[in-house]
Specification:
Blueprint (H helix, E strand, L loop, with lengths): L12 E4 L9 H15 L2 E5 L17 E5 L24 E3 L14 H19 L8 E3 L6 E3 L4 H11 L4 E3 L27 H9 L17 E10 L8 E6 L4 E9 L3 E4 L5 E5 L3 E7 L9 E3 L6 E7 L5 E8 L7 E12 L5 E5 L4 E5 L1
Helix pairs in contact: 2-4, 3-4
Length: 365
């Protein structure tokens, strides 16, 4: 019923290779999907509709990982459900090949095949993240009673998938990704989201371990790969309202790719379930400390999304500060987020990568 809370389960991951929606229950469904992701750390992977104008309710959830296909033949953007679940939010989160015939000359990709590719990669990350040595803390799930290490949070896993994705790919089978263009306020592509899944990059981000912000006591520079989970950003009287991550671009370290993820806050409740929810507004900014350092050189500042993303060509030897900050008109709040990043070397002319989770062979350029 509409006042019933979602069932408590101990599962960590669900894949949805089906579509439905466009009913009076859509807000109720979306709120419950977003609630279990945030409250139970129950990751939801949802494929988009295979048509360019096909609505599927699960893919409109803020906290889900939404999946398209590398060919770009899928729906994109969200549909208007109400004043919170508004139209034109960025989706997909990322894409995967989704090729189901094995014919390298055929454009026969489906999101029903791409979504489980992403779900399989997500399972690999969850297994890796279960190592407590990779996290600086943990908490108990309020409904499940399960210990969740920072690396295992839904925010950290989603951020690692996004920051690890490739924006240019030459696939051995199926369509290539050659026309990626940033055309959203949160630094992504409307057609391809963060790009094509690269489980190896995402694994390296999680395996590098959690690295706190300077404000949370980290005196060192962040590494080339890594993530952070802040359980209480903002704080009373904005006492924790800036998080800085500094680094120097070394020789051959050319591109910063970073993704900031936070969940929609659904009131929920075990009895009398409430669909009321709050979308906090966070920004992700990059400063060049060897230039003026007072104004960001690039920023991701969407008003309607719950991810912010950077993709920036660095200058060797320059010192940078990546910062998480409240967005415009964001009042006093306290909420959690995850930030994931990689600083990539100059791409090799030909790199072969076998993604064992789903038997995909591709070369990256």
């Amino acid at each position: 019923g509409k006042t019933t809370a979602p069932q408590v389960v101990n599962d960590r991951l669900a894949n949805h290779s089906w579509v439905a929606g466009n009913s009076s229950s859509d807000r109720s469904i979306l709120s419950r999907i977003d609630y279990v992701v945030e409250t139970d750390d129950f990751l939801q992977v949802a494929g988009l509709d295979n048509s360019r104008h096909g609505y599927t309710v699960l893919a409109d959830a803020f906290n889900a990982i939404t999946v398209g296909v590398t060919s770009g033949v899928h729906d994109s953007g969200t549909y208007a459900v109400d004043t919170l679940y508004v139209a034109n939010r960025t989706r997909p989160t990322l894409v995967a090949p989704g090729n189901y015939s094995g014919d390298p000359n055929a454009i026969d990709t489906k999101t029903s095949y791409a979504a489980p590719e992403v779900a399989a990669a997500t399972a690999v990350l969850l297994e890796t993240a279960a190592n407590p040595a990779l996290s600086n803390g943990s908490y108990l799930g309020p409904r499940t009673g399960r210990t969740v290490h920072h690396a295992e949070t839904t925010e950290a896993i989603k951020a690692a998938l996004m920051a690890g994705a490739d924006r240019a790919v030459d696939n051995a089978v199926g369509p290539d990704l050659t026309n990626y263009a940033v055309d959203t306020a949160n630094g992504l592509s409307r057609a391809y989201g963060a790009g094509q899944l690269n489980v190896y990059n995402s694994y390296r981000i999680i395996a590098a371990g959690e690295q706190d912000s300077a404000e949370d006591g980290n005196p060192a520079d962040i590494g080339r790969f890594g993530f952070d989970y802040d359980p209480a950003f903002g704080g009373a009287n904005a006492s924790n309202a800036t998080a800085s991550y500094e680094f120097t671009a070394g020789a051959g370290h050319h591109t910063l790719i970073a993704s900031l993820v936070w969940n929609l806050d659904v009131v929920g409740g075990d009895t009398g379930f409430s669909t009321n929810a709050t979308l906090y507004n966070l920004d992700l900014l990059l400063y060049d400390l060897d230039a003026s350092g007072t104004e960001p050189i690039v920023a991701s500042s969407s008003l309607i999304d719950n991810t912010e993303n950077l993709f920036f060509e660095l200058t060797t030897g320059h010192r940078y500060s990546m910062q998480v900050a409240p967005g415009i008109d964001q009042g006093t709040f306290e909420w959690d987020y995850a930030l994931a990043w990689q600083v990539t070397p100059e791409p090799a002319s030909l790199v072969l990568l076998v993604l064992g989770t789903f038997g995909l062979l591709r070369r990256r350029r």
